[in-house]
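Repro:
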Amino acid sequence: MTLPNLPDLPLTGVRIVDFSRVLAGPFCTALLSDLGADVIKIEPPGGDDYRAVGPFADGESGLFAAMNRNKRSIVIDLKTVAGRELAQTLCAGADVVVENFRPGVADKLGIGYAELGERNPALVYASVSGFGQTGPESHRPAYDIILQAMCGLMDATGSPDGPPTLIGESVSDVVSGLFASWGVLAALLSREKTGKGTHVDVSMFDATLSLSATLVARFAATGIAPQRVGNRHSSSAPFGAFRAQDGFYVVAVLNNRLFDTFAQAIGEPHLSSDPRYADDATRCVHEAALRACVEAWSAQRSVAEVNRILGAAGIPVAPIRNVQQALESDQATFRGLLTDVPRANGVASHTRRLPSQPVKFSAYDGNRVTAAPQLGEHTAEILHTFGLDAARIAGLRMQGVFGRDGAAAGSAQFAHSDALNKETDHA
């Protein structure tokens, strides 16, 4: 299936060759593809590992579909000499290359920055790895849970008397992909001025610590690691999650004026004159007593009633939703956070809901949102774009460039293999 022609978007005309797999790298290139970049996804004969990771819908991975929307897939076996040469040809005609091999692996495969940058000095080359291209930990493989553990996120999450807690999202992977897309855009802007490309080195370790902006700021100011505080703010109260009659809600009271209004709204105006609650610092010291007072009021009311009363008073308040409730809300629907698109089989009646990048641009229409490709679906189309004729493509197939089974035919079926990943373990 050829991607449809669309009106100009901010990145229309930018060509990206994407060697990455699983999450951080593919999320980076998905964000860029949403804005019009032509992303050529190079996969090994066994395909990106995410193709085999559930949940599945009609045999297709939901995770792979979301992280590889809008892209074109070509199968190239980088363990073959002809495959490496073909990959180098594609990179020579690219604006951007993205990879998330362990440091040194891309060089062994002939697609490292040193070699590709020499051939194409204007190339922007982004590497996403667990600990970056340099440093004593740079050789280590990394997954999201490893980074959450090593960067203090787990230690800072959970109840004070409970264990360190994993955040319910692969935040290290996601924020690394986000920083990688940011780095690529900055490098492209610089290239407009200088004509020169650069190597963008994204470390998941660095990115995760940068995501922890307030934790890092607190440590930088005090020299003390922040402690777990559970579902409340570390330096303001009442600021956190509270129990109502039929569930939980959150409030955010950040100053004395708002606290006075809050005390009036819950029918306890005397709280404003109680010396225990004179300011943020004293309210935090006596948070348990204040919480008991607040929940004595809200335990007699539904979450909806609590939100109605506090919302009418101008207090920042919200129900605690699950992801389904959030995505099916009127606000999410209005903002278009999910789009129904035809599945890769092209049957219009069969659709899949896909996300897209969230930023709106007044000068452009909505983002591009198209289905993720089948394995090798666009191999011939891509190679024709680079000037290879049918005979040349057939010759490459005979050399095993597209895998033993000639995956370039675009079949959706593939045999999952860890052979390449033994050398190119994630990040």
